[in-house]
Amino acid sequence: MGTYLDLYFVGRNLYEFPLRPFPDIFPINVAFTLFVLPLFTGLFLFLMNKMRKWGRAFFILFVSLIMPVVEKASELWGVFKHSNGWNHGYSFFGYYLFLILIWGIFKRSKEK
Questions:
Q1: Is the pLDDT of residue 112 over 80?
Q2: How far, rounded to the nearest angstrom, does the alpha carbon of residue 29 sit from its chain's CA centroid?
Q3: What is the distance, to the nearest Å, from the Cα of residue 79 to the centroid of all Cα atoms in its chain?
Q4: Residue pLDDT, tens place only, 34-64
Q5: Can you give the residue ranges of every domain in the chain?
Q6: What is the secondary structure of 32-96 as a DSSP string?
Q7: How far apart are CA 24 and CA 66, in angstroms?
Q8: Collapsing DSSP states into helix, strand and coil, what is residue 98?
């Protein structure tokens, strides 16, 4: 899902990845897609599994709130660049929905 959103937003020129592996082949950062996002998701699910209901709710909110800050830092490091039309509130809501969806799928898969 994250890869498709990256492809969509890069295609709409809302953001880009100036430093990325294989820039002539991929418009997105495949290292992020193949390594960072799966590790982040695995760590997120591991930690969520250890928490109670309210802890999980606050954790999702906290992670969603810090992601725009992480994006701003990534821009300073030169690995991420947003267009002037980008609102970092999009990142908050995007990660918030993504994390809820990932947790919901994980939780349902454990019930079966």
A1: no
A2: 12
A3: 14
A4: 999 999 999 999 999 999 999 999 999 999 9
A5: 2-111
A6: IIIIIHHHHHHHHHHHHHTS-HHHHHHHHHHHHHHHHHHHHHHHHHTS-EE-TT--HHHHHHHHH
A7: 31
A8: helix
